[in-house]
Amino acid sequence: MSRRRARRKVSPRPAPRTVVRTSSAGPAVAERTVRTISWRHCAIGLLAGEALLLLISNLGLLIANVAFGPAGQQHADGGVVGVSTFVAVIFGGWLAARLAGRFGLYQGTVVAIGFIAVGAIWQFVQESLLVAHFISVGGHHLIDLGPMNLGAVVSGDLLALFAGSVGGLLSGRR
Fold first, then answer.
1. Which residue, 43, 44, 58, 45, is CA-closest to 90?
2. How far apart are CA 157 and CA 62, in angstroms?
3. pTM of the full predicted structure?
4. 43, 51 in Cβ contact below 8 A?
5. CA atoms within 13 A on the CB side of 10
6. Residue 16 and residue 33 in contact, taking contact as beta carbons nearer than 8 Å
């Protein structure tokens, strides 16, 4: 047995499902369907991208604080988190598409949607904990959660979708 055959036996690709469709006009017709999105590989790409985001953003903020001094909680980070998120989404989309081996654009887009969902959940949990803290200490005044800038939310989401698509396309899997 050749190496190629042995390798195929070890890691076989899943066969496309065959769906039999019947109609009143004629005999049953068998059609082959292929699944487009590999959810398992998208989840792996999302987790790897989030880990990379954590590493890059913390390192970038550490370097920026050493070089320019600490900016404090209320100041902008100079784009470190935005750029690191962009790079992490590209990497996550690329990894998911590489692992899936097909439909790179779709895999990257799903990873980007995962990044958007994780970011929204993270923001919700942070604000909920802040409100819960003020309620638990007996505060009876309004809590300032900051302004809701819808333009920044939409542009950030579009940028994440663009980055995921680019990452999926860079994988070379069509």
1. 45
2. 26
3. 0.72
4. no
5. 7
6. yes
Q: Which segments of the chain have a pLDDT < 70?
A: 1-34, 71-77, 173-174
30, 20 in Cβ contact below 8 A? Answer: yes
User: Rounded to an integer, what is the distance from CA 39 to the centroid of its chain?
Assistant: 12
Q: Which residues contact 64 (CB under 8 A, 6 or more apart)?
A: 71, 77, 78, 80
Give DSSP secondary structure letters for the chain. Answer: --HHHHHHHHSPPPPPEEEEEEETTEEEEEEEE-----HHHHHHHHHHHHHHHHHHHHHHHHHHHHHH----SSS--TTHHHHHHHHHHHHHHHHHHHHH-S-HHHHHHHHHHHHHHHHHHHHHHHHHHHHHHHHHTT--S--------HHHHHHHHHHHHHHHHHHHHHTT--
Report pLDDT digits (tens) over 103-124: 889 999 999 999 999 999 998 8
Contact yes or no for 165/109 (Cβ under 8 A): yes
Residue entry with tokens 């990873």: 111
Let me know: does 31 contact 21? Beta carbons within 8 Å: yes
What does the pLDDT look like over 122-134, one tens digit per residue? Answer: 988 988 898 888 8
The structure tokens listed for 50 are 């989030």
